[in-house]
Amino acid sequence: MGRKPCCAKEGLNRGAWTAMEDDILVSYINDHGEGKWGSLPKRAGLNRCGKSCRLRWLNYLRPGIKRGNISNDEEELIVRLHGLLGNRWGVVEVWEIHVLQATKKNFQDCFKEGLLKKDV
Question: Which SUPFAM superfamilies match (predicted)?
């Protein structure tokens, strides 16, 4: 027993997104907004599943995503907030708008390791 699949996978494009697919997705979301990801691919004319479209938008195409490392100021702010709030990372999400989820997770892991080494 497992989870129900997000969609029927037969006949869908899998693998790397093309620049044309990215353009179609961005154009559609700019015109119609986010939401109803399950029906978006069909309405936009994409041969992808809704989950794939949502993840592509949120992690790569959404305006305002900052790529790369966090700045020293952002790191200091996070350290100060962690001192005040502890390990409640849901509250300490001041950088989520700018950094991908994977980068945020890597920072949390490194931060926790650093605290363990310092015996905090």
Answer: Homeodomain-like (SSF46689)
